[in-house]
Automatic annotation (TrEMBL):
Family in the record: Belongs to the AccD/PCCB family.
Reported cofactor(s): Zn(2+)
Domain CoA carboxyltransferase N-terminal positions: 23-280
GO cellular component: acetyl-CoA carboxylase complex
Pfam families hit by this protein: Carboxyl_trans, Zn_ribbon_ACC
Chain ranges of zinc fingers (C4-type): 27-49
GO molecular function terms attached to this record: acetyl-CoA carboxylase activity; ATP binding; carboxyl- or carbamoyltransferase activity; zinc ion binding
Name the record gives this protein: Acetyl-coenzyme A carboxylase carboxyl transferase subunit beta
Gene: accD
Species of provenance: Phragmitibacter flavus
Gene3D superfamilies named among the record's database cross-references: 2-enoyl-CoA Hydratase, Chain A, domain 1
TM annotation in the entry: none
Main location class: cytoplasm
Catalysed reaction equations from the record: N(6)-carboxybiotinyl-L-lysyl-[protein] + acetyl-CoA = N(6)-biotinyl-L-lysyl-[protein] + malonyl-CoA
Binding site for Zn(2+): 27, 30, 46, 49
């Protein structure tokens, strides 16, 4: 006869979580556990290794624009289901409720260092910031607004690519956005593209990489297809750092790599040069 009775797992009660949700965040680069409030105050840049976490559109705006200068445009544009894709609108509504956004990009007028701009900021939380008809339309309208009002355009990209739920209609946005940018260029107005982690697919192959100046955050992934797909297609080993901002700067696609803490100051300085002589 045993002196001790072995307790069952059910008798131990509910398992306690080692890390309360939303309080601590583990850095995917260095593995350090970071206090979320401290991370937020540091613009979501790891205090140990400087890894740049993704930002929401609202967080991005807070780090960039002059105080109370942002005026959102086309906030009410909403997706439809042109191909009858199963439960597509249900997914859209779920992400709208989760993020508080209508779609995966926020656009509007603002000033940065006193310089008049139109911004488009993609938010990866919304369906991986995939580019559907509404995303393409909002970015196109933002560019056209900037052209009409003699403003610079700045687009912050972070996307998994074209939205498969809309098929060829999503791919059409590549040409539409670039057409608007061509007219903006003809008006001798600047376009600054800022690539953040990750920027892939049809977004990379269109408006994200045709800026008058292409900037990127450190170590962000930039590419068309993912590295696994590229390797399986080419049957070749990929070079070290393939598809990172640093690799692409060395090979001429990226002009500058700008840490997040320096982004507002850098944009203000660059806008001062590019908008010199532009009538207001």
């Amino acid at each position: 006869m045993g002196f001790f009775k072995k307790r069952s797992l059910n008798e131990l009660g509910e398992k306690k979580k080692d890390m309360p949700e939303g309080v601590w965040v583990k850095c995917p680069s260095c593995g350090e556990s970071l206090y979320d409030q401290t991370l937020a105050k540091n613009m979501r840049v790891c205090t140990h290794c400087s890894y740049h976490f993704t930002l929401s559109a609202a967080e991005r705006l807070e780090t960039l624009v002059d105080e109370e200068s942002f005026e959102e445009i086309d906030a009410a544009l909403d997706s439809v289901n042109p191909l009858g894709f199963d439960n597509y609108l249900g997914k859209v509504k779920a992400y709208q409720a989760k993020t508080g956004l209508t779609e995966a990009v926020v656009t509007g007028r603002a000033t940065i260092g006193g310089h008049r701009v139109v911004l488009a900021i993609m938010d990866f939380r919304f369906l991986g910031a995939s580019m559907g008809s509404v995303v393409g339309e909002k970015i196109t309208r933002a560019i056209e607004t900037a052209t009409t009002e003699n403003r610079a355009v700045i687009v912050f990209s972070a996307s998994g690519g074209a939205r498969m739920h809309e098929g060829i209609l999503s791919l059409m946005q590549m040409a539409k956005t670039c057409g608007a940018l061509a007219r903006h260029h003809d008006a001798k107005l600047p376009y600054i593209s800022v690539l953040t982690h990750p920027t892939t697919g049809g977004v990379t192959a269109s408006f994200a990489t045709v800026g008058d100046l292409n900037l990127a955050e450190p170590k962000c992934m930039i590419g068309f297809a993912g590295p696994r797909v590229v390797k399986e297609t080419t049957h070749s080993d990929l070079p070290p750092g393939f598809q990172t901002a640093e690799f692409l700067k060395d090979h001429g696609l990226i002009d500058m790599i700008v840490p997040r803490h320096e982004m507002q100051q850098t944009l203000a300085r660059v806008l001062g040069y590019l908008l010199n002589g532009v009538s207001r």
